[in-house]
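Quick one, T. Sequence first:
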Amino acid sequence: MQEQVRVPGTYGLHEIEVNTLEAWPNTHPERDYVTHLEIPEFTCLCPRSGFPDFATIVVDYVPNTSVVELKSLKLYINSYRNRQISHEAATNTILNELVALLAPRWMRVVADFTVRGNIKTIIFAEHAQPGYTGPRPEYRRYLPS
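Structure tokens:
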């Protein structure tokens, strides 16, 4: 078997390529608590023009038996960098894949895109298990814009 030669300075590209989202056990599954994640350097490509779009992705969720492993989430989000996808599709795909992985009690993904063409776009996508009545905090960003 031939050994793969990597160009120096590209190990991150390989990590992104081979990454899969990973779940970790929730150490307090008996409690409804909210995990708030902010990802301020999200990028993807416009499916029409190919120009880059930039956003802050905010994920709020109430875990059930699993939480997301953060390095795998970072690499997963970075995989969108060269992907041509609409704002709506990116937001809903992120939500769908996290829900499939974690089966949270409740989750909201917000993609807060920077102004482009004089239009500000914020996409909200939400999931809740049937009968869920626990916390659903209002959307908020904590990091400076």
